[in-house]
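FORM 12-B: Structure-to-Sequence Request
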């Protein structure tokens, strides 16, 4: 088990800038390609089912390792929180809920992003595989997702009315992906430009 003593951050004594310096800002969230299924080949179907079970088992293992790591951090920082684990699509999701967790979120989620990277690193050191797990604290990401989806829809509507591209403020990879998805659903095109941590979304009118 990878414990916080292996990759430790004294959260209570660090400010946001110090935490951000521990890890890079670049978070790769490329979607995994889906395997083609051959309906009339029972052997292929069995293999696909086995692979699905293996993938689920791997994601559950990631969640367990991440939960152990976060639990250790909570103990070190003397913070109370309950940990929930789930699997959403092709990633494990670990959520921490509690009444005194603002320290683990930080301004605009900066501390949360750093903790997520540290947790992914802990999982990688244990499994040897790149982890795409998502860490949420106090429902921050769930609330932020809803807010950003609405922002993406409203900005797409504005671009559609004006016919002019719209450049948004700098956002994290998590935030940019939500904007991209909302813009795509609105039938418009968007791209990311710039370098981290100043990378931002630009929304373009439909051609």
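FORM 12-B RESPONSE
SEQUENCE OUT:
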């Amino acid at each position: 088990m990878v414990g916080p003593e292996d990759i430790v951050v004294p959260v209570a004594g660090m400010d946001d800038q110090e935490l951000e310096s521990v890890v890079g800002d670049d978070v790769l969230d490329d979607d995994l390609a889906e395997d083609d299924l051959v309906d009339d080949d029972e052997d292929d179907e069995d293999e696909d089912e086995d692979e699905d079970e293996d993938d689920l088992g791997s994601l559950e293992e990631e969640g367990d390792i991440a939960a152990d790591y976060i639990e250790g951090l909570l103990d070190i920082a003397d913070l109370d929180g309950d940990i929930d684990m789930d699997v959403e699509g092709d990633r494990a999701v670990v959520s921490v809920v509690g009444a005194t967790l603002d320290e683990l979120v930080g301004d605009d989620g900066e501390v949360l992003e750093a903790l997520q990277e540290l947790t992914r690193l802990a999982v990688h050191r244990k499994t040897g595989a790149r982890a795409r797990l998502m860490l949420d604290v106090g429902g921050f990401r769930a609330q932020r997702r809803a807010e950003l989806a609405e922002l993406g829809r409203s900005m797409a509507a504005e671009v559609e009315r004006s016919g002019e591209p719209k450049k948004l403020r700098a956002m994290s990879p998590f935030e940019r992906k939500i904007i991209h998805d909302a813009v795509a659903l609105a039938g418009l095109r968007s791209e990311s430009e710039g370098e981290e941590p100043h990378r931002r979304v630009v929304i373009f009118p439909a051609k």
